[in-house]
Amino acid sequence: MDKIKVGILGYGNLGRGVELAVGQQNDMELVAVFTRRDNVVTDKGLKCINVNKIEEYKDKIDVLILCGGSATDLPVQGVQMIKHFNTVDSFDTHARIPEYFAEMDKTAKESGKLGIISVGWDPGLFSIARMLFGAILPQGNDYTFWGKGVSQGHSDAIRRVKGVKAGIQYTIPKEQALQMVRNAENPNLTAREKHLRECYVVAQDGADKAQIESEIKNMPNYFADYDTVVHFISEEELKRDHGKMPHGGFVIRSGETTDCHKHVLELSIKLDSNPEFTSSVLTAYARAIAKLAKEGKTGAVTVFDVPISYLSSKSGEELRKNLL
Question: Are 168 and 158 in contact (CB under 8 A)?
Fold first, then answer.
């Protein structure tokens, strides 16, 4: 059986993770890595190719995994690339998913290609859990908790504060709120009641730390609606103790089948490396997209539209024998 030929667009943390994940699959082959930078060699020793030459590979790649960011990269790259390739991406701006899907679907159907958007753990695996749990327990409530883990967007917001040299922010679920949900109490929780935001900041020499702390805690859309703790530490401490990118979270459905029978369904993940895990999810869905494209499917899809067996390299017979 021919191996699935994979390409990677973008070689940051996510692209590095996909290179690693593809290397762990016995039915996949990494054909090329494309970047906007020149003279880049991957961790595995593969010389990257300038993105300007990517169309030369449209007949050599079964699936192109897009590893850019959701803010500026994917809204442009997604539509450009699906004109020539079957694609997988991790677009995670929840409010813009419907419009992004519509644009990708239209372009993909015109080009005869297939693309899956918003793959990862949230959106992605957590989305599946919310849908599945809600279908099983229609009378109930969904709760999603994120962390403990590094929020890249909030960390970036900290670093933009005047007087901040470096910083990182952790999102932490509040244990009391988690326990209320797990006890099937069905609470109505505010953002402040669900999560704590913990910041580790390296201040510039001579900076006003009180002013920095006040600006962080009162920042709208990021910290103002949460209990926020700010720690000032040295640059050495930041590098030593906060160099990794852990994350995780919980999706919980609390519901009932009768007044006296309550049920709690939960999916939880704990990740040492958010980028590496997300990359592994992208890679599994690349396999599914290759299979669906071979069957002639075109347009855009999401995790809701892909048969779960298509994620596996195992045959239907093997899955029924060993996992059913």
Answer: yes
From first to last of the 324 residues of the chain, give the pLDDT tens digit.
Answer: 699 999 999 999 999 999 999 999 999 999 999 999 989 999 999 999 999 999 999 999 999 999 998 888 999 999 999 999 999 999 998 899 999 999 999 999 999 999 999 999 999 999 999 999 999 999 999 999 999 999 988 998 999 999 999 999 999 999 999 999 999 999 999 999 999 999 999 999 999 999 999 999 999 989 999 999 999 999 999 999 999 999 999 999 999 999 899 999 999 999 999 999 999 999 999 999 999 999 999 999 999 999 999 999 999 999 999 999
Residue type, 293: A
Kindly state the tokens that stand for 29.
């082959």
In Å, what is the CA distance from 307 to each residue of 128, 172, 179, 295, 304? 12, 33, 33, 13, 8
Alpha carbons within 13 A on the beta-carbon side of 11: 23
Comparing CA positions, the residue from 73, 57, 103 lying closest to residue 10 is 73
3-state secondary structure 80-92: HHCCCCCEECCCC
Residues in the chain: 324
> Cβ(308)–Cβ(129) under 8 Å?
no
CB 158, CB 203: distance < 8 Å: no
Cβ atoms 9, 77 nearer than 8 A: yes
- CA distances from residue 235 to 9, 97, 200, 202, 240 in whole angstroms, order as listed: 32, 37, 10, 6, 9
Distance, in Å, from the CA atom of 171 to the CA atom of 155, rounded to the nearest integer, reads 10
How does DSSP assign 13-78, residue by residue? Answer: HHHHHHHHHHHT-TTEEEEEEEESSSS-B-TTSPBPEEGGGGGGGTTT-SEEEE-S-TTTHHHHHH
The residue among 293, 299, 303 whose CA lies nearest residue 111 is 299
